[in-house]
Structure formats: C-alpha cells, structure tokens
C-alpha cells in the first residue's frame, strides 16, 4: 500500500512539473500491466490483487480490487466526504458493494460506522481496545444503548473503571470487566450525579461534595495529618505523633454528654486533657467548658482564663470610631471617635498618670476634649471631680452647675458648705431688728417676708439651698428675738397682774369687813 501511495505522489508530481509533456485526452494508463482497465491501473507482479484508481463526474476512488475478497478502499465524493471502507471494486459511480468503516464529512466530523479499533492489538474485542505490551491487562471502552464504560479488565484482579450511564451519572470504581450492560462486579468509590453533586462513600450525594466516611489530608509522618471524620464522630481532627496532643473540632451529639456540652453545640476538643475547653452552643453563646484551661491572646503563658497582652479593638463605624482595650503603655478602655479630641478613656492610674492630679492605683475617666481626668475613684473608694471646670448632670445633658439634677434626690443627709456668713449677726446688739409693725407693713406692701425672695423670683431663679437656709435661719433667729421680747413683756405683764390681783384681794377683804359692820348696826 505504501508503494502504491508513493507511485501516485510521483505521478502527480511529474504531471505538475513536466509542463512540456502531452497526454492523450482519453485512454487508460497501466503500471505493471499493458492492458489497463482503469484510468490508472497498477498491478503487482504476483497474485490477482489489483490496486485501482477510478474517477467519475463527482467521484474519486482509490482501492484494491480482488476476486477473492472485499478490498480496502478510499473514496472522495461530491459531498466533500472522505470515506474509508471495503469494496469488491471501484466503478465510475463509486465503490462496488462498499462497506463503510470510517467517514470524515464536509464539516470535519469523524465517525466510525462499525467494527472495533485496536491499539497495541490486531484483534480488538471492544469498540476501543488498548492492549499493553506485557501481561494480560486490557484497557477497554465499551458502549451500550445508554452506557459508556472505560476501565481495565484483568483475569487476575478487579481493575479501575470509569462508567457513564443513562442517568447522566459518572461513577468511578473497580470492576472485573466492562460489558454492554455496564461494569461487571462494579465496586463504586465516587459518583457525580446529574445535578453535579459528588458522592464519596455514598451513591446518593445530597450536596456538591458528600463524603460518607473519613477524609485524610497531609502526612508529615505516620500520625501527623488532618482528618475529616463523618461517621462515629463528625468532626475535623488535627492528628499529631502523640495522640494526647490531638485537636478536634466538631458538633456535639448524644455521645458527648459527658464532656460538658449539649447535642448540637460546636466544640474544640483537646486530646491533652480529654475535655472540650471551648464550646459554642446553639444560641451562639461561647464558653470555656474546661475551667482549668486559660486563653491567651498575645501571650502563650496566660495566667487567667482570658489573658490579653496587647490592644483589643471592637466595632468600626469608620476609620476611628471604635472601642479599644489597651493593655501595654496605658492599661485602659478607650472609646475612639472620628475626632481624636472627643475620645473617652477609662483606666487605672500608674506612675505616668500623676501629672493628671491622680495617684497610682486610682480609677479615672479621661477626656481628650480638656486633656484632663474629670472623674476619679481613688483606692479608698472616694469619688471626686478632678476637672474643676466640668459639670455633672443627672437627668439632664445640659448641667449649669457642678451638679445639676433634674428630678428627685433621696438622701439621708446633705452637707452644704456655706458661701454666705451664718446669721449669728442677728443676736448682736447693733443688729437693726425690724419691729413687728414694720414686718407687718412689709408683708402688706411686698407680699413676702423681708430679705426673702418673692415667689416669682424663686420660680425663675430656683432656690439656692445654702443661701436660703441662712435666710430662713435669719428669720428663725429674728423670730427668737421677737419671742424673747414678747416673753419679757409677758413676764412684766404677769408681775403687774399679780400685784393687781393682790391689791384686788385686799380691797375685797376690806369690803367684806365693812359690809359685816354695817349689818350689825
């Protein structure tokens, strides 16, 4: 066949280059024969096999004609098709009794009509049969009505197999053979169903990846790897050479009841202590189940259940609107705002804070607005306002005094430092005490006591307790003087009355005696 192709190429080459050659318009050409029966008739020196080339109006055929059997043929037709097959001859209309085996159509599509393809074997037993050079292993591809299987067939063992079936499923496993109905004795390892879900260890995957069994990743040594367990303990495990150093993460079920967690809780299991030091329950609460365990952030030697060495930041409305827990330079809680001058800081004073009028160990509230600490609780529990320009409001956001309370105050005792002198001056001899008549006249004219604000003034300006108490005390002391004076007059009047009563008794006695004498006469 190779010689035939070579001759054809040579003839075509000569025809194209030998521009001076002239051939007759009709007739046949014979090579190896003086009686050509085709336009080009090439006959071997022995046998009855004829290699032929025949052309028609829209047809070119190259093939082998034999009286004994169907010969191979290569056909080009008017439909721009290339067909390879067998025929009993090549005629002007095409190949005689042509049995097509392979076709390339005008779109470039290739198809195999019948038969089998063998690679590494001249006797294929499947549609595609690939045979290795050694052993009895056969790599096969077999198709059925709704089935495609690719696998390794072995008389000695189960071979790997890849199966596509009518349910749009891809199945990977092992089989002892591939037949037209499916894989023989198929042991499935992995399945991709028609929805795209992948199942490992299960034939009915419900998720994109559904693994029924354990998954193992990484292997530094025999026991240093990560493992995803899904059967007995559905959890993620980080195994180490020492089993007591394992770390396991999972969701608790009824078998975990003895570990201090409830079914459905997320946990972190430490193989060192055989306990679950960290748990997140179904409501979202986070707890340290193992009370002996401590959590360190920024330190690997935590001394408390939670030990943070460094700053902690929470919340972020924008670049500078958040809460910060600082623990190094200034151990304090900070509330940062977009303007640094509006920050609020709470902490315990240390040696570096003494310039802010606080002592080491005092609790303070620091405001960047005034760069001072307006509120301090010292080690004895006393609360003080260090910033003398600051006001405190209770029930109001606009205090107009050091302490402004909008509402009631309930206290056992209130102590007020005097800003005005105590009214003991009332008892001095030079005090100008108004007479009762003068007081009465003032009340008639003004409607209130002398030196006491009127009701309208009190309603407008409020009551200053210190000053008002002193004014009330002044009135009490004045009333005391009035009472003393009245008592003095009362005593004087009493003495006069006693004298009058004695004189009256004396007169009544004398009158009685006089009346008695008159009656005797």
Automatic annotation (TrEMBL):
Residues 1-18 form the signal peptide. Residues 488-517 form a coiled coil. Keywords: Coiled coil, Signal. It comes from the Bacteria. This is Peptidase S74 domain-containing protein. It comes from Aquimarina mytili.
């Amino acid at each position: 066949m190779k010689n035939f192709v070579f001759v054809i190429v040579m003839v075509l080459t000569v025809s194209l280059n030998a521009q001076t050659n002239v051939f007759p318009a009709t007739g046949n050409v014979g090579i190896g024969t003086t009686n050509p029966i085709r336009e080009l008739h090439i006959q071997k020196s022995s046998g009855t096999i004829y290699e032929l080339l025949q052309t028609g109006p829209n047809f070119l055929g190259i093939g082998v004609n034999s009286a004994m059997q169907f010969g191979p043929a290569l056909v080009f037709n008017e439909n721009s098709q290339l067909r390879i097959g067998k025929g009993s001859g090549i005629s002007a209309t095409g190949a005689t009794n042509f049995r097509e085996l392979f076709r390339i159509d005008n779109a470039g599509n290739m198809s195999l009509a019948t038969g089998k393809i063998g690679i590494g074997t001249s006797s294929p037993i499947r549609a595609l049969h690939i045979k290795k050079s050694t052993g009895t292993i056969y790599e096969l591809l077999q198709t059925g009505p709704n089935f495609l299987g690719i696998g390794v067939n072995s008389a000695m063992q189960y071979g790997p197999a890849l199966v596509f079936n009518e349910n749009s499923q891809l199945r990977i496993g092992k089989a002892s053979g591939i037949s037209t109905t499916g894989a023989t004795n198929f042991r499935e390892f992995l399945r991709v169903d028609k929805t795209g879900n992948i199942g490992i260890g299960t034939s009915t995957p419900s998720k994109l990846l559904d693994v029924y069994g354990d998954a193992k990743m990484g292997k530094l040594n025999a026991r240093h790897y990560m493992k995803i367990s899904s059967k007995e303990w559905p959890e993620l495990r980080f195994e180490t050479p020492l089993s007591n150093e394992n770390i396991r993460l999972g969701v608790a079920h009824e078998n975990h009841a003895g570990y201090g967690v409830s079914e459905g809780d997320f946990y972190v299991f430490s193989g060192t202590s055989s306990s679950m030091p960290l748990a997140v329950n179904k409501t979202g609460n986070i707890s340290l189940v193992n009370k002996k365990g401590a959590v360190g952030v920024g330190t690997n030697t935590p001394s408390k259940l939670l030990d943070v060495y460094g700053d902690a930041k929470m919340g972020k409305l924008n670049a500078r609107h958040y809460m910060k827990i600082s623990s190094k330079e200034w151990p304090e809680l900070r509330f940062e705002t977009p303007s640094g001058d509006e920050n609020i800081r709470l902490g315990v004073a240390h040696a570096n804070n003494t310039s802010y009028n606080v002592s080491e160990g005092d609790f303070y509230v620091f405001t960047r607005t005034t760069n001072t600490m307006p509120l301090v609780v010292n080690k004895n529990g006393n609360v003080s306002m260090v910033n003398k320009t600051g006001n405190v409001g209770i029930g109001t956001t606009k205090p107009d005094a050091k302490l402004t309370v909008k509402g009631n105050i309930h206290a056992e005792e209130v102590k007020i430092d005097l800003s005005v002198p105590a009214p003991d001056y009332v008892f001095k001899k030079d005090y100008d005490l108004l007479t009762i008549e003068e007081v009465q006249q003032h009340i008639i004219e003004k409607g209130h006591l002398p030196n006491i604000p009127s009701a309208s003034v009190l309603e407008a300006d409020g009551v200053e307790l210190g000053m008002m108490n002193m004014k009330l005390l002044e009135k009490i002391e004045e009333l005391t003087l009035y009472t003393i004076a009245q008592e003095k007059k009362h005593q004087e009047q009493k003495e006069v009355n006693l004298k009058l009563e004695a004189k009256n008794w004396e007169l009544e006695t004398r009158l009685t005696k006089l009346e008695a004498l008159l009656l005797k006469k």
